[in-house]
Amino acid sequence: MRALALALALFAANPALADTLSTITVSGEAKVVAAPDMATLSLGATGTGQDALTAMNATSAALEAVIARLQSSGIEDRDIQTSSLQLNRKARWDREKDQEIFQGFEASNMLTIRVRDLSSLSAVLGAVLSDGANNLSGLTWGIQDTQTLEDEARRRAVKDAMTKAALYAEAAGVELGDVMSIRDTADPIVRPSLGRAAPMMAEMASDVPVAAGEIEASANVTMVFEIDD
After folding, report:
1. Of these four, 3, 17, 124, 179, which has the most CB atoms within 10 Å of its CB?
2. Do the domains 38-142 and 2-34+147-189+219-228 match in fold?
3. CATH homologous superfamily, domain 38-142
4. Strand locations in the chain (E)
5. Does the structure show a pLDDT above 90 at 187?
6. What is the distance in angstroms between the CA of the first residue and the CA of the last residue of the chain?
7. Phi and psi (nearest 5°) for 206?
8. Burial grade of 17 (CB within 10 A; 0-12, 13-18, 19 or more)
9. What pairs with residue 143 in β-bridges?
10. What is the pLDDT of residue 220?
11. How far apart, in whole angstroms, are the C-alpha atoms of residue 198 and residue 47?
């Protein structure tokens, strides 16, 4: 790597020398898939009341039961986080009377939860819904060790670029030389997601069926090779 840097510095300092070089520029890409080993979901409870305290107390009681269920199911405290807490006044406008009609208060408390044991996910979902969670805004699949997956995609992208460069050199009847530069354009890991609306909750079975699918990591590189004389 140091030798490559010195060589590039030499070319930069001597434009005439750089101009005499013949090069091959290629791009390489790769995709790697793996089964997810973690799920992140956002769920919570919404309660109503004629006053703010009643609405908040109803929501808090449901969330306390949900958190207790999560903890008893093996979810660690570090994987349970309050993501949203809201209290809203509800009202509608009566056109005939030309006045606002007060309808009470609505409180909402949402949690972000990481489930690291996917074998328990369906049972956990069913249990927390039974315990009072009535708002599930989404479920996202992920991998705990994303670095390994991304690194493998990068290795394969470089291999793809080198294979192309060798093919082009052979087809052109020239000798492929050293690598002059590598430029990495990394794409984020794609995480399939599933969202469900609250009205569907009451119709769900005690264990909620879910399908994890696959997680995909992709990588793209551009490589420049010297052509040997």
Report:
1. 124
2. no
3. Protein of unknown function (DUF541), domain 2 (3.30.70.2970)
4. 23-34, 38-49, 80-94, 99-115, 135-142, 175-186, 193-194, 215-228
5. no
6. 23
7. -60, -35
8. exposed
9. none
10. 93
11. 13
Q: Is 100 exposed, middle or buried (0-12, 13-18, 19+ CB in 10 A)?
A: exposed
Q: Which residues contact 8 (CB under 8 A, 6 or more apart)?
A: 180, 181
DSSP state of 153: H
| Tokens 């006044």 belong to residue | 89
pLDDT tens by residue, 129-185:
888 888 888 888 889 988 899 899 999 999 999 999 999 999 999 999 999 999 987
Q: CA 184 to CA 222: how far, in whole Å?
A: 7
Distance CA 140, CA 159 (A): 31
Q: Which residue has the tokens 């009470």?
A: 104
Higher pLDDT, 210 or 113: 113
Q: Please state the pTM of the whole predicted model.
A: 0.66
In the block, residue with structure tokens 């249990």: 127
The one-letter amino acid code at 44 reads G
Retrieve residue 4's tokens.
Answer: 């490559």
The pair of structure tokens assigned to 14 is 């001597």
Cα 65–67–69 angle (5° rounding)? 70
User: Tokens representing 163?
Assistant: 């294979």
Please report, for the chain, the start and end positions of each structural domain, with discontinuous segments joined by +: 2-34+147-189+219-228, 38-142
Share above pLDDT 70 across residues of the chain, in percent, rounded to a whole number: 81
200 pLDDT more than 70: no
CB-based contact 195:41 (threshold 8 Å): no
162: nearest Cα among 27, 5, 3, 13: 27
